[in-house]
Amino acid sequence: MQGFYDDNVGLVVSNPKASTGAVARAAAKMGRRSQVFDISVDAEFIRRQYFNDPSRNTTDSVIDADLVKATRLDRYALNAHLDLDSTVTSELASSGLTRVPKRRVRWQLAPSWRHQLMPLWGVTANASYQDVSYRDAQLTGLVDYTYLTLGADTDYRFDERTQLLGQVSFARYESDQTSTTSDTTGILAGIGYNFSPTWSARALLGLRKTETSQTTFAGTSTVDDTGYLVDISTTKQYQTGALTVGLNQSTNPSGSGELLDSEHLSMDWNQRLSHRWRFTLTADRYKNERSSGMAGTNDRQYLNIRPGLRYKLDREWSLSAAYRYRYQKYDVNPDSATSNALLLTLSYLPVSRK
Q1: What's the CATH class of domain 2-348?
Q2: What is the Cα 216 distance to its own chain's centre?
């Protein structure tokens, strides 16, 4: 259970609205393991209540299921995922179209197969298909879309510390409402390296080519664009905490009717201060632009920083207090929007009793 105060819940430039509110979450997990398959299902239900802006009230749910079969050399997996949520939260990292709350329905299927060619060399084939739709979203700028990805990864352990990595991928973004199709091919290569048992890093760099076509009453126009692909991260674990920092440059789907070229810088730090106290800090910075290379009305920067303290009441209960700062700036608007929020959370996580 969480209580909050936010001085700009819509993250808008003019006439920001402040609101207090509450968020209630309930989650459950079940699974079954046999000699043939491993099955797991996770479900979460979330109720968001805005006391000063009831139009944003929503009840969300997430269901995630995994089916895995493993043999000596192969691993087959199938993931199914369903989101029933609101654009209040779903569009923050992509289109930014959060001002008018609408229901988003997103489902995804993602099969994969990994084969161990040699003790030090493995390959993985993967695919995913997602369908995203918005309810009653006319005149909001939100459009339905589908997104298909196909990929192949390889990894070779060069020595005890070094791993050679490679990826090739194809993705297709389609939006019937805007008659837009974007095809992206990409290739990355890099290494993973273990500096020590508690410090690891990986870095992959590559190139992509995107071809976007749009059909209007005047005909079909096609735009080609190239760009960089980046996947860099490092994790340091120590006795009292852990720190992860990452930089990712990739193309991502969005509800704005176009594929986005997205740059994402992230940091996740947690530090145990004592037996009961823990400090956490998460930060995410996004820079999104149209993948076609042409300026768009939804090109934007978004920043989210959240420091917090957690106090462990006992083995199952904990109390957290956090401050959240958000910043949003559209390229077409000289002004920016900011939001400051205070959050107080009471959590219950039952201890497994076997």
Answers
A1: mainly beta
A2: 32
| Structure token digits, residue 167 | 């990826």
Maximum C-alpha span of the chain: 68
Give which of 72, 70, 68, 56 is closest to 18, Cα–Cα.
56
SS3 content of the chain, % helix, strand, coil (to 5): 0, 70, 25
Coil, helix or strand at residue 55: helix
**Residue 11 region by backbone torsions, left for phi larger than 0, else alpha for psi between -120 and 50, else beta:** left
Query: Using CB atoms within 10 A of its CB, is residue 246 exposed (0-12), middle (13-18) or buried (19+)?
Result: middle
Q: CA-CA distance, 36 to 321, in Å (whole number)?
A: 44
Using CA atoms, how far apart are residues 279 and 274, in angstroms rounded to an integer?
10
Domain ranges within the chain, ordered by starting residue: 2-348
* HEC profile of 150-167: EEEEEEEECCCCEEEEEE
pTM of this structure: 0.91
pLDDT in tens, 22-68: 999 999 999 998 888 999 999 999 999 999 999 999 999 999 999 99
